[in-house]
Specification:
Blueprint (H helix, E strand, L loop, with lengths): L1 H163 L43 H9 L5 H5 L3 H8 L8 H12 L1
Length: 258
């Protein structure tokens, strides 16, 4: 009997403790729910405050950026105006410098042209004087050459007449001596042994100078010229022999020697 009462009392104690524990858990749950509700409300208030502050910051930032852009645009416009002014001043200065330089060059060019015309006029006058002198000397040399050729022809005719037995013609009277020529005269060909020189200048293209070259080669007669080689004659004549028709000379000499 005593044991049953003790068991009943213990069981009632356990039940009471369990009820107390359940009540404590319910109270903790309620407290936690209240705290969570308060935390959630505080979090929402904090989010609202942060959004408000962000909106105010964005508005302020937008205003500052707008003002900065307006300031930069104003500064850029002022800088552009200043640069255009400086460029205009530099262009005007450059234009003035170029104009002065062109005027200086034009003046120098005109002075140079006047100086060149003066030099050309002086050179033209001097050249005309030199050409006149050369023409005078050339006419004198041609006159002297004609006299030399006349004497040479007279000598040749006399030698041919002497060889054939006919009386030799008289040589023409020589005129008064004149000053020495400015160029060297070709020597008169002379008889070599039994060879009587022919007048090689009667062949077209052979003058007194070329006849002298031929005589130095040992060619005095048409027959000797007809038997010569064109290459050898051109080699002796040098530069003038390149344009000479030596083959025609030889052909003409062959016709006259027959």
């Amino acid at each position: 009997m005593a044991l049953s009462n003790e068991m009943r009392r213990l069981t009632q104690g356990f039940l009471a403790a369990h009820k107390d524990r359940i009540a404590m858990v319910a109270a903790i749950r309620d407290d936690t729910a209240q705290e969570l509700s308060g935390f959630h409300a505080a979090h929402e208030d904090m989010a609202v405050e942060q959004r408000r502050r962000l909106a105010d910051y964005m508005y302020g930032l937008r205003d500052n950026v707008t003002k900065m852009l307006e300031s930069l645009d104003t500064a850029h416009q002022r800088m552009a105006v200043d640069q255009r002014r400086r460029l205009a001043d530099y262009a005007d200065q450059l234009r003035d410098n170029v104009t002065k330089m062109l005027e200086s060059l034009d003046t120098a060019h005109q002075s140079m042209a006047v100086e060149q015309r003066r030099h050309l006029a002086t050179g033209r006058t001097r050249l005309a004087s030199d050409v006149s002198k050369m023409r005078g000397n050339l006419h004198a040399d041609q006159s002297e050459a004609r006299k030399v050729w006349s004497n040479f022809a007279t000598v040749m005719r006399g030698r041919r007449a002497k060889k054939s037995g006919a009386p030799s013609p008289k040589a023409p009277m020589a005129k008064a001596a004149r000053p020495p020529m400015t160029v060297a005269k070709a020597p008169v060909p002379h008889a070599v042994g039994e060879v009587i020189p022919d007048d090689l200048t009667t062949i077209g293209g052979i003058g007194a100078g070329r006849q002298q070259f031929l005589n130095e080669m040992g060619i005095y007669t048409f027959a000797q010229l007809a038997g010569s080689r064109p290459q050898k004659i051109r080699r002796v004549l040098g530069t003038s022999g390149r344009l000479a028709n030596v083959e025609q000379w030889i052909e003409e000499a062959r016709k006259r020697s027959t």
